[in-house]
Amino acid sequence: MMEACNDWDSRRQSRPVMTPLLPQQIAPVDPQQHALTDAYLVERIFALQAYFLELRAKVDAVLAPKMPAAAGKAYPYGRCEEITRELYALLAIRLRQPETPIELLLHDFMAQGGIVRSVWGVLREQYFQNALQFGGLYIDVANDTVDVNKAPVEILPLAASGLVAVRDLAHFRRTAESYWGATIYANHLLPSLAPLLPMVSVSPGRLRSGLQSACDYMIALMCRDNFEQAEVWLLEGPTPPDEEAAVLLANTPADLRPWTDTGRDESILACQRARIAHCAADERWRQARVLDYLRSLRGPAAAS
């Protein structure tokens, strides 16, 4: 699925960054962020909790009526991405014209260079997690989407939250296997998409089988090493079983399928060609592949 990885990065002051952050990557908490967090946020945790609970209630009123059950369980189960994305968009609107004391506080925090961004990663080495980063704070506005008995909002020091960035494909696969109960295969089915989406996940009764991971963070991670780790996985990873391949390809536009019987070789070649053509730095190429991915979900009718 296309996870919510668009950043509304509120930093107002330039700071030297050795390596550009990937979309939704956790930002380092440097001394400035520590100081701003202490000055503006730490002593106002209860006010922040109340504020985000208020926003969460507004988001629930919008999403709950239209969200189908996930894995047979009612909203909010399994809707971490959707809730976080909707709340982040609402927050952006609110903070452009702050009215309440807490909004004015957050606006001032941002104006002084406080980081506010949507982040995504692996939480406590157990599952994928969307959250918000406010300086040195981790704010989970969808804390009840795995265990519905938990409080909807959780605020912790980022360092104590257990949220870490996905390091590589092996880290993603381990998390998907444990969290989704998934089996991960190599994408030998849609070769042109393999440089960005090199994996196929199959998790019966949990998630729809499909390519992984159509998240801006993971796509950027594949581009960062010029598709090297994608190519290695496509070379070494198992091909999806015939029955799973048939299901995944049943409604896929013909132009995205392998041209020969050797989808594995085509997928590897796609990585090599993309590397030679410097596609990792080509935003138009990347966007075209994302559009092809979305077209693959809609089926042949959308191929024209």
Automatic annotation (TrEMBL):
Record's protein name: Uncharacterized protein
